[in-house]
Amino acid sequence: MPDAPQLKGERRLLSLLFADLVGSGELSAILDPEDLHQVYQQTREIAYAAVAKYGGRVKDFIGDGVLAYFGYPMAVERGAQAAVNAGLEMVAAVAGRRWPVVEQAGRTLRMRVGIHTGEVVIGDIGRAGGAHEANAVVGAAPIVASRVQTAAAENTVVISEVTHQLVEGQFRCRDLGAVTLKSVAEPMRLYEVEASGSARAQVDRIATRHVRPLVGRAAELRRLRDAWRLAMEGGRPCVCVRGEAGIGKSRLLAELKAKIRAD
Length: 263
What we know:
Layout: E1 9-21, H1 24-30, H2 33-53, E2 57-62, E3 65-70, H3 79-96, H4 100-104, E4 111-126, E5 132-138, H5 141-150, E6 156-160, H6 161-167, E7 171-179, E8 188-196, H7 199-208, H8 218-232, H9 249-262
Parallel strand pairs: 4-6
Antiparallel strand pairs: 1-3, 1-4, 2-3, 4-5, 6-8, 7-8
Helix pairs in contact: 2-3, 8-9
């Protein structure tokens, strides 16, 4: 009997989004199954469109819920920001749409979204009988994202502290404090996203949010400062800063900006 194929996974930092319809159990009790099927189908289309628009991928549709991730197979520069934008768009689309069969039952359709960023292993995983699941996401992050969603009020997006650190300044958020979540060992600090921040605030925040010293980029920073000095002397230097997503290009440029201000 041949050996089962060795399926490999890849460690990634992903922003995971979990969206759920509020009161779906109550809806299932009062709506005709065909009407409920139509509602589920339309909300899935809304979710899929929002995730795809911002470069994410839908992992699973679970009943009336959806799990999506941002940052795989291609790493994205601002995966957390993309996830939050997708969540806001989902909530707005569901709230702003007419749902005749729901309204006829005297109800309104509402959605809530939770987002968490964390390390996972993603890749194909074996199943009994030789079958396998493609792009399985293994780790605590998907579970945490689903738990964060339960802390959201209807028609809102709530994010974990880790995600908030990545998008701070890009969105206006309300601190919800430390919240105890089911199946999560320690209370988590959560934030409700209220609106997108201004472009100017986003740029300024990148330059001011890093309180830890920059490590391991002395040579790169020196070359950038030399180019700046040359420009100040009338030269025309051209510098291209490039590299994989998430290695700290924006952090490096923010450090340069801080050094120039200090000079």
